[in-house]
Design goal:
It is globular, with a radius of gyration of 22 Å. The chain has helices at 2-21, 50-63, 108-128, 153-167, 196-205, 207-214, 229-235, 256-263, 345-355, 357-366, 368-373, 377-384, 391-415, 424-432, 436-445, 450-457, and strands at 32-42, 66-71, 77-82, 88-91, 97-101, 131-133, 185-190, 246-247, 267-272, 277-284, 294-297, 303-306, 319-320, 322-324, 329-332. By secondary structure, it is of the alpha+beta class. It contains 16 helices and 15 strands. The longest helix has 25 residues, at 391-415. The chain is 41% helix and 16% strand. β9 and β10 form a beta hairpin. α2 (50-63) packs across α3 (108-128), α6 (207-214) packs across α13 and α13 runs antiparallel to α14 (424-432). The chain starts with a helix and ends in a 6-residue tail after the last helix.
Length: 463
């Protein structure tokens, strides 16, 4: 029995090794991949009208060089692909979030130019129907919207899996649908075997500063004190049953084998066959093949007995804030969606630091911020996402963020593409010592409605 278990652990380890490490890049050439999610808001402060967003996709196909790539079970378009590149526009999890998944690019400006072109078609159409894309990290009318999943197997399975958390008391009643009302700004950057570990370690270490700098998902209509409700939802859902599966790394990785040890503690929770898709209570990867049978559910809620298969690892994905992807990139996924005028601050910040990776590592090793606050990065991220911080805490994290920002600026200057201009909004945040979530709260306290704030955050200039 012991020998069988060893062989099973080795199988899971090698499947993870092949899935994630086989695609690492051999060169230092750096491309940037950007994915942007934005909430669709009904400016009447009511639920999003689905007929409007379905008509939007038809309008995009009419006005832009896009074609329908995927439809839902009712034959409605849910994903469009560019006729000129690999850009995609899609509904993310639910019908209230629009995602822009851009083809990899050499510069941020390439993506920015296309984004402006797409918005020039999308926003006037939505505005004519009293709707708008806005730059919040959580839909301000999440409690009014119909947060059903997109009618496709993947999203329906995901929502049904998260609903297990409601049924078992892991998460509160309405919040298991969080995937349909939170929005992020995600960046993917190429890594090599040599840069992988410092990339994971260094960016993990600055999650406290990023929490303060990019916070923009205060959950309206509740009493959560955090300015990043997205963290709470990820970590206190079925995705967070195992600590290693989501959020901030709790370890410093010396090498790939130690990182593999960590990956083996992440979860599998779904299985896809030609006939059906199933979900089940999460099982850690290194324990997966110790189960001769797994009790799972299909989308009709019927219970079935499944047999673990190596093919199930094709479905494996973790939800860490620094995630190694199957494309040879690290995806940085802890930043909230930003006000539209500041959309590319997230990409510029990460890209600039990546260029300066050796200096970044040195800065992290010796920065006085850690002398004062320690290195419990998970606890610190939650701490500096709080709505109320002392003057000392704000000053300290702002100084830390300024040092990181200066280094990112240096990195972007080395690239020579003029991308440093995208960081100007972050310098302003540091000078004013307020992030987008605090701006939104101040506007609300001044008497602005959430619809009015949504329009401000949707402005493409002078946020």
């Amino acid at each position: 029995m012991k020998r069988r278990r060893i062989r099973q652990v080795e199988l899971s380890r090698e499947l993870l090794r092949e899935r994630y490490f086989s695609k690492l890049k051999a060169t230092d050439e750096l491309f940037v991949g950007i994915e942007l999610e934005f909430p669709i808001v009904n400016l009447s402060a009511k639920a999003v009208v689905f007929s409007v967003v379905f008509e939007l996709f038809s309008h995009i196909v009419d006005q832009l060089p896009f074609s329908i790539e995927k439809t839902d079970t009712f034959e409605r378009p849910i994903q469009l692909v560019s006729d000129e590149n690999e850009d995609r526009i899609l509904f993310e999890v639910g019908y209230n979030t629009l995602e822009f998944a851009f083809d990899k690019a050499k510069t941020i400006q390439e993506v920015d130019d296309k984004f402006k072109q797409y918005l020039s078609v999308i926003q006037p159409f939505l505005k004519s129907h009293n709707h708008l894309l806005t730059g919040f990290g959580v839909n301000p009318f999440w409690h009014k919207n119909d947060n059903r999943p997109v009618a496709s197997q993947r999203y329906e399975m995901l929502m049904a899996y998260l609903k297990l958390g409601r049924d078992t008391g892991v998460i509160q009643e309405e919040r298991y649908q969080f995937g349909a009302f939170i929005q992020g700004s995600q960046v993917q950057l190429d890594v090599t075997p040599d840069t992988l570990m410092p990339t994971l370690n260094d960016f993990n270490a600055i999650e406290p500063a990023k929490a303060w700098l990019f916070a923009n998902s205060y959950l309206w209509h509740t009493h959560l004190e955090t300015l990043i409700s997205r963290d709470i939802f990820w970590e206190e859902s079925m995705h967070g049953v195992f600590d290693e599966n989501v959020g901030v790394f709790t370890e410093y990785f010396e090498d790939q084998e130690q990182f593999l040890d960590y990956l083996e503690k992440t979860a599998l929770f779904s299985s896809t066959s030609d006939d059906d898709i199933h979900y089940f209570n999460p099982i850690q990867a290194d324990d997966y093949f110790n189960h001769d049978e797994i009790s799972g559910f299909n989308l009709s809620g019927e219970s079935n007995i499944l047999t673990p298969s190596p093919y199930d690892f094709n479905e494996h994905r973790s939800y860490q804030y620094q995630s190694l992807t199957t494309r040879g990139t690290v995806e940085f996924r802890s930043s909230c969606a930003q006000p539209i005028a500041d959309t590319f601050t997230v990409a510029a910040f990460h890209l600039g630091l990546m260029v300066e990776l050796p200096a970044f590592t040195e800065l992290i090793e010796s920065h006085p911020f850690y002398e004062d606050y320690g290195r419990d990065y998970k606890q610190l991220r939650r701490r500096f996402a709080a709505q109320q911080l002392s003057d000392e805490e704000v000053n300290d994290v702002a100084m830390f963020a300024k040092d990181l920002l200066d280094l990112a600026t240096s990195g972007l200057k080395k690239r020579g593409f003029g991308e440093g201009s995208y960081l100007s909004a972050l310098y302003q945040r540091i000078a004013l010592k307020q992030n987008p979530a605090l701006v939104g709260l101040k506007l609300f306290e001044s008497g602005k409605t959430l619809s009015e704030i949504s329009e401000i955050f949707a402005n493409e200039k002078d946020f």
